[in-house]
Automatic annotation (TrEMBL):
Keywords: Acyltransferase, Transferase. It comes from Deinococcus deserti (strain DSM 17065 / CIP 109153 / LMG 22923 / VCD115). One of its GO terms (molecular function) is acyltransferase activity, transferring groups other than amino-acyl groups. Residues 2-152 form the N-acetyltransferase domain. The keyword Membrane does not apply. CDD domains: NAT_SF (cd04301). This is Putative acyltransferase. The keyword Transferase applies.
Length: 152
């Protein structure tokens, strides 16, 4: 199963990303019970790419690349449904996103994960991402961990 480009307006992709947000709210005891639905416009701009892995018509994993500026893009929405974890889907999606970033000419990729997600931290560090100071929206969030991968 290889990652394939998927439109962010695909209802299955929207469902997958809404599930990701619900899981993160539970994991971090986010008291705001209004799970914001995924807005496809956030991944519809120039330089954005959503990849998914599908099996038997069901999307099992996703990840996205979102252009920040001419030199950098952000890895977003990395998620694998719990029943499909441990099968290397996240690693395949991340590798494909890194390659897409290289082909797009980005100098670096950045991402944010949380301190309650050791599997994600391990995945990113194994792929060569290194900790950086928290950036942008995550700057003052104590449980956020930000990473960067230099592509050139």
């Amino acid at each position: 199963m290889l990652p394939v480009p998927t439109l962010p307006t695909d209802p299955r992709a929207q469902h997958l990303m809404n599930e990701q947000q619900r899981e993160l709210r539970r994991l971090y005891n986010d008291e705001d019970s209004r799970t914001e639905p995924f807005d496809p416009q956030t991944l519809s701009g120039e330089g954005s790419l959503l990849l998914t892995i599908e099996e038997d018509g069901q999307l099992l994993a996703c990840g996205a690349l979102k252009k920040l500026d001419e030199e950098s893009a952000e890895i977003k929405r990395m998620y694998t449904v719990p029943a499909a974890r441990g099968r290397g889907m996240g690693r395949r999606i991340l590798s494909a996103l890194i390659e897409a970033g290289r082909q797009a000419g980005y100098a670096r990729l950045v991402l944010e994960t949380g301190n309650q997600q050791p599997e994600a931290v391990h995945l990113y560090e194994q792929a060569g991402f290194r900790r950086i100071p928290n950036y942008g929206y995550y700057q003052d969030m104590e449980d956020s961990l930000c990473y960067e991968l230099r592509l050139r």
